[in-house]
Design goal:
The chain has 187 residues and is of the alpha/beta class. The protein has one domain: Alpha-Beta Barrel (TIM Barrel). It has six helices and nine strands; from the N terminus they run βββαβαβαβαβαβαβ. The model has no long low-confidence stretch (mean pLDDT 96).
């Protein structure tokens, strides 16, 4: 459980995710990501969202380590990129993310773009979750059509679908679909 004053959402697997977080998309890995994450943690953020394709996992991990905040109080999300969706590649990519982050586990790991060998990537993620390398697994950018193509064949229901969502793009069809399985929409 995240031990802060930030409200949380309980996911369908029982874990609790902070209701807001700090994303590091498009922050360069030239010391800028390290500084941004360090500042965010000092300001009270306890959810940091990165991805393999952001090329800044190492700086995220260093900022977390140097923060002095107990690891169990920081929720870390990363994402698997397309080139690593084949089963063996996905297994290696999960270990590589853990190594770059300098962590024993990630709190949430997502399929970043649901194209290609999604079923193989998901199988590797399910195994990593069972092994304790990942606490929660989910997807990102899944439309209702793509959801219906892949998710019914998964052994484990995603905990999260991270998508664009705002007052002008409310994702009504998708929200109805994922609510049936208690999947949290993350925007």
């Amino acid at each position: 459980m995240i031990n802060t004053n930030i409200p949380t959402f309980k996911l369908n697997d029982g874990t609790e995710i902070p209701s807001f977080g700090f994303g590091v998309f498009q922050i360069p890995a030239d010391g800028t990501t390290y500084q941004a994450v360090s500042d965010a943690l000092k300001l009270g953020y306890r959810h940091i969202d990165t991805a393999v394709v952001y090329f800044n996992e190492q700086e995220v991990g260093k900022a977390i380590k140097d923060s002095g905040i107990p690891r169990e109080q920081i929720w870390v999300t990363s994402k698997l990129w397309l080139q690593d969706f084949a089963y063996e590649d996905a297994k290696k990519a999960i270990d590589t993310s853990l190594q770059k982050l300098g962590l024993d586990y990630m709190d949430l790991y997502l399929i970043h773009q649901p194209y290609g060998k999604v079923d193989e990537a998901w199988k590797a993620m399910e195994e990593a979750k069972k092994a304790g390398k990942i606490r929660s697994i989910g997807v990102s950018n899944m439309t209702p059509k793509i959801w219906n193509k892949f998710v019914p064949s998964f052994d484990t229901m995603p905990s999260v679908n991270q998508v664009q969502y705002n007052p002008y793009f409310q994702q009504k069809e998708l929200r109805k679909l994922i609510a049936e399985n208690h999947v949290t929409l993350e925007a």
